[in-house]
Amino acid sequence: MSEPVNLPALRAVSSSNEVGVVRTPPHNIDAEQALLGALLVNNVVYEKIGELLQPEHFYDPVHGRIYGAIATLISRGQIADPKTLRGLFDNDPALTAVGGANYLVDLASNIVTIFNVGDYAQLVHDLHLRRQLIALGTDVVNDAFQHDLDKPAKLQIESTEAKLFELARTGETDRGFVKLEKALAVSIKMAEEAHKRDSHITGVTTGLNDIDRKMGGLQRSDLVILAGRPSMGKTALATNMAFNAAHAYFKSEGREGSGVAFFSLEMSSEQLATRLLGDFSSVPSDKIRRGEIKTEDFTKFVEASQTLSRVPLYIDDTPALSVSGLRTRARRLKRMVPHLGLIVIDYLQLLHGSASKQENRVQEVSEITRNLKALAKELDIPVLALSQLSRAVEMREDKTPQLADLRESGSIEQDADVVMFVYREEYYHARSEPTRRADEDEGKFNDRYSRWMQRGEEVNNIAEVVIAKQRHGPIGTVKLHFDGQFTRFSNLEKRFGDDE
Question: pTM for the complete prediction?
Fold first, then answer.
């Protein structure tokens, strides 16, 4: 809730720097009086405005105190009128200055019909916001003039944007109780829209059919964790999902997919763009980096870049980003790009929490995951955050990841709506080539080596996405095709039975 601000009269300055007339902050005393009068006559009115207005929203402090007293009595189940409030103000010097307890009677005479009360409340609240904007603007100017080494200009900008966003949300009351009938209507509408889509999914498509079928796409307001050990391809998978969603939006002219914000805290935007260019043009990205490309590849680059440039994928590669800074940038992009429907963060452990708090790493990660979940709900879009796994995976014979392997904090599992692990047995299998034991004859060794070769063929270019937690759906394993040459995950026909 915003704090009350006592604003001095502001002196207007013309463009020629000449001092002009004194300006008082915006207010409307008549509207405040009429509103309070309606409340004193009919307490039921409070139900219409109680969530919108707070005592500090009134310009006149006396009116704010009267409104607060009315709200207190009503919350106790008592009647609030000039008689019941009289005792509270008999010895109040501020009320005495405006006429004493008789002022309450005068207010009650300023009756507004119950149908107009909402308009008056909205006016009082709007004027409060204007005064807050003036105060915020004054603070911005004063802070900018101060040379504080601990608060650089970028930090001031982020702080100001966060305050503006909070100010914009003040008084939002449309997220109250929703009758089941209305919620069902929204649910049916979503299902109908999904049925009309070619993909038949309710969320943002990942472009990977089996994952979309298992999850219905990435769902709004969900925090999705994608975790894996190094070299499993979690960045590649997240990049593929992000591009697929943005490309689907471009191809379908907005009917499917969405705009995507990609916070790349590990790779630069150029590295990410090179990876996407290599994937889309089918030219290995490592050859692009080394310049080992053929003349005809440049034609592919031109064609690929023309498509990629029109895809709504936005990359922020700022290193060492704070979670509050990330939220500020996401809000800003959402205002600029209304079709933003997915945020990807690579990766969670590279974020840091509030600089003002001195906490251990577990508490810091808990703060980060809470903020990411809050961001998903606030913008009503899925947030896909990558996460590392602990080394415990490497110590087991079965290296398939488990929820207990999530690194640094149990809050990751707790706050996430979906937890997925990417696992490639091929990676471990290639590093476990059998060697002949001292007590092993040649026949047994050849047999063991043959089984190893056979297993290698079975897991070649195969990746698994283990959905270990899904708050609103089933868990299970989905198999994908992985092309290491292009760091590309794609759909795989079922070759090992149906996991559904």
Answer: 0.65
